Amino acid sequence: MRIRRPVNPIRFDIGILGGRIVDGAGNPWYYGDLGIAGKKISKIGRIDRKECQNVVRADDLYVCPGFIDIHTHSDVSALLYPGCDSTIRQGVTTHLVGNCGQSAAPVRGPYADLWREHYWFSGFGYLKDWDWESFGQYLSHMEKKGVGHNIAGLVGHGTVRAMVLGSSQAAPTPKELRLMKSLVDESMRDGAFGLSTGLVYPPGCYAKTDEIIEMCKVVAKYGGIYTSHIRGERETVLDAIKEAVLIGEKSGVSVQISHNCPKVGAWGRTKETLRLAEEARIEGLDVTVDNDVHTDLEESMSASLPQYLHAIDKQELFEILKDPGNRRRIKKEIIEDEHPGAGYVGLLKHGMFDRIFLMEVPRQKDLEGKTVAQVAEERRRDPYETFFDLILEEKDKIVTLYDYILEEDVKALLVHPLVMVSSDGSTRSIDHVAGDSPGYSPCAFGEYPGIFERYVRDEAVLTIQEAVRKMTSFPAQRLGLLDRGLLRPGMRADIAVIDLARIRDRATNLWPHAYPYKNYPPKYPEGIPHVIVNGTVAVKDGKQTKARAGEVLRHKWP
Ligand SMILES: [Zn+2]
Predict the structure, then answer these.
(1) pTM above the 0.85 mark?
(2) Does residue 295 carry a pLDDT above 80?
(3) CB atoms within 10 A of CB 284
(4) For tag attachment on the chain, is the N or C end more exposed, with fewer CB atoms within 10 Å?
């Protein structure tokens, strides 16, 4: 006689029960339970709690695919903060790093230090154990260390150019161009998802269009994408978009125009900028756009000086700024803007010093909360001179807030069908590493919850399903990550559960700014109770686990 053993009813490692499923495709929510087995979603439908090893109750909550952030600068910060605290708590489960021409690899040869010390945004100085040269070694380094959410990477044109040409403004010789192309080729074979440019930053701003087309031809061969912080997002914004489109046309890559909100000097021109992307698509070019929703940026004061001054030591810069003749010349260069500077430089170009705030002034605390315009008035001094004075007086250590974008423009982009959501931030933690302060980083701590709070719930600019689409399946499609970004059986189990009624961004300091600054320093958001990365619980009941379940993703030719 055969004895029947009782059948083990467990079929799912995790069951998310009772939630409203927002599938990521843009469809309205529906009720359903979601079962996860291993790293994948294995069922959506009706699931009994007896079938689940672990149960997540999601009554009245929205169950969404984990958010995919297509524009980030977490290249180094994900190594400094491998838990990815500030982003995982927003429900973000994938970051694309290496944007704006800046990637952490390949770095080798005589100019490697120039890159790390002068051109890299920040963070390298705090890393104790970087040991890579190639893009592949960089990815393996991150993989070994472990990371809280998935990371995919672009190779930066600025990085590659600096490795071959240093800080030279010259065009590459044919031999140098071949070398640059070979670095891109190697990085693509190592798993880069494409190439990025930062054409307002050094050394990208010195590159002619042809140089970029040549490098993009390599990317096209591997089916990668081209993302660009275009050559000027202000007065020259239309020409800059046309250049990006031309690069796509001539090289065969698809084009992603990064954080493409017109900045001061081009306020209100979103119709014209978006029309260029629409027209390119009619012509058969795959052009898409991303944008973040913040109107301000924290940067150093020296970051708004002309690009050639970024490549020198601080001490040398201070000596230059002591000379009145140099100051007159630099002021003229800022106004002429030959190599258009970053968006916020427009505030200097147009003399709008009332939108440049001093958030932290180490030696002169009484200046905190004032604008450069106010300080200039109190000192009865020219605002440009005051700007230079402040750099010298505080050794460029002032935490400065540039408010250079209009919220109406942000909203116009948010609702456009070709625009997906990105943060332009980098993953951080409130438990920051010694010496490295999170500063004012709303995009690192509050981007995604802020969109749900302000633009989905409070103002109804977007429906929840449309917001989620722009954060999930749309960027996934752009990257060729066809097993993520949607809630369907068989897809990777990257999931964010959100409580729309309670969601709260605690990192954004809305315009008009008033001292003391609201939400500064930043805190983690509220209303994102559960986050799952590759089938592992990363946030449970609002508390982050110690999981480092992220994967380092490598691009594969589809
Ligand atoms: Zn950028």
Answers:
(1) yes
(2) yes
(3) 7
(4) N
